[in-house]
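[job 4471] stage=fold_predict status=RUNNING
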Amino acid sequence: MEQNKIRTYLKYAVGEIALVMIGILLALQVNNWNEQRKQTNQEVKLLYDLRQEFVSNRIELELAIRRKEIGLENLKKRMGYIIEKDDKALFNQKFTGGANTFHPSDGVLKTIISTGQITLLQNDSLKYALANWESKVDDIQEEENTHLNFMINVLDEYENTKMFKMIGAPEFNSSEYLSWVTSNEPYLRNRIKESINDPVYLSYHQQAYMMLKMAYLEFTEFEKEYSRVEIMISNEISNRKIH
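[job 4471] inference complete, writing structure tokens
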């Protein structure tokens, strides 16, 4: 009789322990589910912010690429004019060397990395690409700056010293300066003739063209990577839902 009571007690005790354990496990599961939902919502917000930043920067990226295409076209024309010794064409050309630089906004990306929020992203390929993004931007900016410094410190300096400040730069598009250029055309074209007979002048254009070409190729490759990251961000947003 006493043994039956003990067995009954043990059964109830085991049952209560099992219920407590099940309750704890369910609570942990609910807590984990809530935490997972919270992290997913945080991740989606980060992805939306990233996409907005990338969309905004794409406009500047495409402008920078287009400016380099125009710069290459102009440099090629100028080299042709120099080889043909066409001082009139050089005088009339409004030159732009494609020297604008790419400065994307990166507030969202820097915040995500500096705060460690990048760990919320579940896509490892996206995390890796974003973690290395700053160095990729630095690389293409370095190519840009190499060309820009050459244009300012070598080619522009040569023209400013040997010829005159060429039309095209914003500070030399004033009506007063353009009027002076027009009224002094014979004198200025003679200075251009002297320069196009100088092999150094053509050499400077060739160097500027090659530097800009390298920058352009770097940018077109970067644009492909840019598109790849944009697609990854959009796909991750599509695969997530805010709960």
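[job 4471] summary: Residues 82 and 196 are 5 Å apart (CA to CA).
[job 4471] exit 0
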